[in-house]
Amino acid sequence: MENWSLFSLCVLLGLTSRWAVSFHSYSGAGKPPMFGDYEAQRHWQEVTYNLPVHEWYFNTTNNDLNYWGLDYPPLTAYHSLVCAYVAKLLNPEWVELHASRGYESHSHKLFMRATVLFTDILIYIPAVLLYCFYFCDGSSKQKVATALCILLYPGLILIDYGHFQYNSVSLGLALWGILGLGLGWDLFGSLAFTLALNYKQMELYHSLPFFCYLLGKCIKQGLIGRGFFQLAKISLTVLVTFALCWMPFLSDPKQPLQVLHRLFPFGRGLFEDKVANTWCSLNVLIKIKTLLSRETQLFLSFALTLLFILPSSLKLLSKPNLWQFKLALVNSSLAFFLFSFQVHEKSILLAALPVCLVINEIPLIAIWFLLTSTFSMLPLLVKDGLLLPYVVTSLAFLFLSLYLLSALERSTEEELRLGLYRKLTRHWLPKLNLSRIIKWKFWFSLVAMAALSFTSVWLEPPAKFPDLFPVLVSILSFLHFLGFIIYFNLVQLMEPQRKKSQKKTN
Amino acid sequence: TVMAAPMTNDQSWFYALALGVSFLKCLLINAYHSTDFEVHRNWLALTHSLPVSQWYYEATSEWTLDYPPLFAWFEYGLSHIACFFDKEMLVVPNLNYASPATVLFQRLSVIVADVVFFYAVKECCKCLREDKGKDLLGKPSFILTVLLLWNFGLLIVDHIHFQYNGFLFGVLLLSIARHCQNRHFEGAFLFSVLLNLKHIYLYIAPAYGIYLLRCFCFTQSNADGSLQWRSFSVVRLVILGTIVLSTFAVSFGPFIALGQLPQVLSRLFPFKRGLCHAYWAPNIWALYNIADKAFSILGVKFRLLDINKLPKASMTGGLVQEFQHSVLPSVSPLATLVCTLLSILVNLPNSNIYTIFVILSLLQPALFKIWHRPNGARGFLRCLVICALGSFMFGWHVHEKAIMMAILPLSLLAVDSRKDAGIFLMLSVTSHYSLFPLLFTTQELPIKIFLMLLFTIFSLASLKTLFRKGGALLNPLEVTYLLGLIPLELICEFVYPLTVWQKTFPFLPLMLTSVYCALGVTYAFIRLYISLLTCSDTTKKTKMQ
C-alpha cells in the first residue's frame, strides 16, 4: 500500500479514538457551583466575548476572577474569543454574560468537543505526521507505526477529549517548534515555540532546551560573525512575536504586570491536589507545606529544579543535535514537573510529548513512561467519570505499541542506550543482565499499576485515610518518574559518539 | 526491518487486529444506541423471567420476541450473566430501562460474542491460497481479515446501533469455511443452527441446498463437469437430512409439543408490513417508487393525470409504512394475481408472494448454473452472494442492514479475483454509505464518517495493491459515481439541514440517498450476475478448493 493511504489510515484511527473518547463525561459535569475545566473554558469564551480586552485579567464587577478567572497567556484568551464568536453564531445563550454561567447541554458539549478536534486536526496531528515522516528511522511502515503510537497516546486524548483542555494546541505548537529546529528552520522553530509559550505558560518547561539548542548552534557557528548574526535574528523573532501577542496589553504598564501575576500565582502554594512530584510525595512524610515558609519553599524548588536541569542543558549546549535536544526536553520537563513550584498533575503531558518523540529509539522505556504518566492522572480521571476510556485506551496503547514497535524484542542493553553504563559497571557486577532486569521491572510495574487502579476504583478507602488511594497512586508514579529522570539523564550524558545520531545532526 | 520480525513468523497480526477492533468497540460503549437495544433488553427480561411456553405470547413491550427459538435460548443464557450486572434489566415491565450497568452488559455481550466471528474469520483465512514471502500488507489473508473484522457495517450496526450480527455472521462464515475445508456435515449443521438463530438467513438457503445436493450428495462429476447421475449417495443425503431436521427439532420441538407452532411462526413472519421500510433500502423498489413519483409529478404537470384521483401522496417523511403507488401498478394487487398461480406451492400470505416469486425467478438461472457447473466452493460462494443480494434487491420490507449478508461473503471472493474485487468495492462503498441514515445523531456524525473513510481507504488501497497487475479495479464511470457520494453526503447532512426545506420536506435527503445508492447496488448486482453466468469454470477452479 502507498504511504499516503497508510498515513491517512493512521490519522483516521487517531481521530476515531479521539471522538469516541469524547462521548464520555467531562470535568465537573453537573457539579455546581464550581464545575470544572470545561466550564472554565466556556467561561473564558463568555468573558473574552463580552468584556473589553483591558478587563480580561482584572477583577471587575463583570469579571469575577475567583470564578475561573483567566490565568493563561493572551493566545489562549484570543482562542477563546474566536471560539466565542462561533458559539454566538450557533447559540447566543452559550456565551451570554453572567446568564450563561454553568451552562450545560448536549449540543454545547458537542460544540466544545468539536473545537478541540478542530485545533487538533489543524495543529497537533500534522506536526506528529511531519515529525514521523522526517525524523523517524526505518521503513515507511516503521514511520507509520510510530505515528500511530504517538497519536494514540492515551494521556493527551483523555485530558483533551475527556477532561477537557486544549493541550494539543500548546503541545502541537511546541512540536512545530521542534520540527522547525530539526529541519534547520531556526526562525520558524522559535516563532512556533514562542506561540506555544504564549498559549500556555507551562511551556516554560521546554524553554531551556530550546534556548540551549539555539545558543549552542550559534556558538558553533562562531559568536563573532555568522553565529552572532543568527542569534540576533532569532532574538528579534522571539521579541517581535512576543510583542505581537501582548500588543493589546502594552498600552498600560499595569496590564502586563497583572497578566503576569495571573499567570504565576505564587500564592496558590507549592502544589495542589495530589501530584506525583517530589513535594507532594515528601509531604506524606514531612509536612513541608506547613513547616517551611513560602519563600523557603520557593527557593528550594527553584534550586532543585535548576540543579536537575543544568547537566542536561550544558550537555546540549556543547552538542546541539536533535537527539540531544529531544533528551534535554525530556529531562527539563521532568525536572520541572518533579521539583518546580505549583505543579498540576496534567503537567506530566509536557514531559510526555518529548518522550513520544523518542518512542521509536527507546520503545520499551518510552511506552513504560507514557503508561505511567496516564496512570498518574488516575484520580483525576476517575473523578471525571473517565474510568472506561482510561482502561480501554491504556490497554490499547500498551498492546498496540508493544506490538507495532516490537518493544520487547528491541530492548538489548545497546538499544536501551545503556551500553556505556554497562561497561562502567561490568567491573563490579559482571553477571548483571540489564535488559532482563528492565523487562522484569516493566512487567512488575504494570501489574502494580493495574492492581492499584483496580483497588482505587473498587475498594472503599479506610475511614481514617480517605485519600489513601490517590496518595498511593501519586507516590508510585513519583517513584517511577524519579527513575525515569535518572535514566534519561544517564542516556543523555553518557551518549557515546554514534553514527546514528550524527546522521540526524543538522 | 524491525516491523517484519513479529509479523512474518506467526499469526500475531491477527490477534493485533482482533484486539484493536475490540478496543475500538469498547470505546463505543457510551455511544448512541437505537431501539434495538431495548428490543434485546426486553428479550433478556422475558426469557429470564417467563416459562418457555410464554416466550412467544408475551406482549408487554411492543418489541415482542421475533427471532427463532435458538436465539431466545442465547438470550436466556446471557440473562444469567446479566443478573450480576443489574437485576432490574431482567424485569419485563421495566420498559426502556438503560442504566449504565445495563448498557455496559449489553454492549460487552455483543463484543464478547464476536469471538465466534474472530474464529470464523481465522478459519476462512485458512481457505485462501497464500503467497509466501510477500509483504504483510499485501497478503490476501491479512486483507481479508481487515475487510471482515473492521467491516464498517458491522461496526456501526452492532456496536453503535446495537445488534448481534457479528456473532451470527461468525456462524455463517464458519459454516462457509467448513464447506471450503470439505467438512460438509459440520457446515450443514452450522447453517441449520444459524437458521434457528435468525431466520433472515433463509434467503441464502437455496444456495446451500443446491450446493450440498449437487457437490456433496453426488460424489462424482463427468469429465466436462456435468452431473453423473449414478454417483448419487443416499447415505450422505440421509445424514444431511438428519442433521438439519434434528437441529430444527431441538429448536422448534418444544413449541410444537406445546402446540404453539402457528403462534411462533406468526411472530417470525409478521406479514403486515409494507413493501418498503420507512427508510427505503437501496434496492429495486426504491427506484420503482421514485419512478412512480416522477411519473405522477410529470403527469400532473402535463395534465395527463387528475391530481384528485391520485392516492394521497404517502411520501410523508417515511412515517407511513404502506407506500401507495400512483401511476405504476401498486405491488400488492399485482401480487394477488401471481399468488393465485403459486399459492399452492408456497403457503404464505398474499402480498409477499410477488416479491418471493421475483426473487426465485431471478435466482433460477443462478441456481441452474451452479447445478450444471458447480465450480466448487467458489461457485457456491458466488451463488450465496447472489442469493443474498437478489433477496435484498427484490425482497419485501427489506432493511438496509440486510445488505451485509452479501458484503461479508463477497469479501471472501474479493481477495481472490480482481473482477470480484471491483464489484466488492462498488457494492461495499455504496451500501455502506446507505447505512448512514441509521445513525442520525450529530454526536455520531464524525465517527461514522471516520470509520467509513477508514474502511473505504483501506479496501481501495489494499485491493489495488493485491491486484497490482492488470490496470485499475474501477473504470472512470464507477469512480465518478463513487466520488458522487461525497457531494451527496455534504448536501444531505451539512447543507440541506440549513435550508428552509428541512422543515417542509425532511425526508428528501433520505430519499436521495436511497435512490442514489440503489443505482450502485443494482449495478453491482447486474455485474455480479453476469460474472456468475459467464465465468469459465475450469480455469479458476484451483483456488478455493
**SSE order of chain B, one letter for each helix or strand:** HHHHHHHHHHHHHHHHHHHHHHHH
The value of Rg of chain A in angstroms is 23 Å
Distance between the termini of chain A: 31 Å
SSE class of chain A:
mainly alpha
The rough form of chain B would be described as globular
Shape type of chain A? globular
How many beta-strand runs of chain B?
0
- Based on secondary structure, the structural category of chain B is mainly alpha
Uncertain stretches of 5 or more adjacent residues of chain A: 499-506
Average predicted confidence as pLDDT of chain A? 90
| Total helical segments of chain A | 23
Can you describe what's shown?
With 506 residues, chain A is mainly α. Chain A is 69% helix and 0% strand. Chain A has helices spanning 3-21, 37-50, 74-90, 106-135, 140-151, 154-164, 167-183, 186-199, 204-221, 226-245, 254-263, 278-285, 288-291, 294-318, 322-339, 348-357, 363-376, 378-383, 387-404, 419-425, 434-458, 468-493, 499-504. Chain B has helices at 4-8, 12-27, 35-49, 69-85, 100-126, 140-149, 152-162, 165-180, 184-197, 205-217, 234-257, 261-268, 284-301, 331-342, 350-372, 376-394, 404-414, 418-434, 445-466, 476-483, 485-495, 501-504, 508-534, 537-540. In chain B, helix 14 crosses helix 15, helix 16 runs antiparallel to helix 17 and helix 16 (376-394) runs antiparallel to helix 23. The two termini of chain B are 35 Å apart. Mean pLDDT of chain B is 83; it is low at 1-8, 312-322, 332-351 and 537-545.
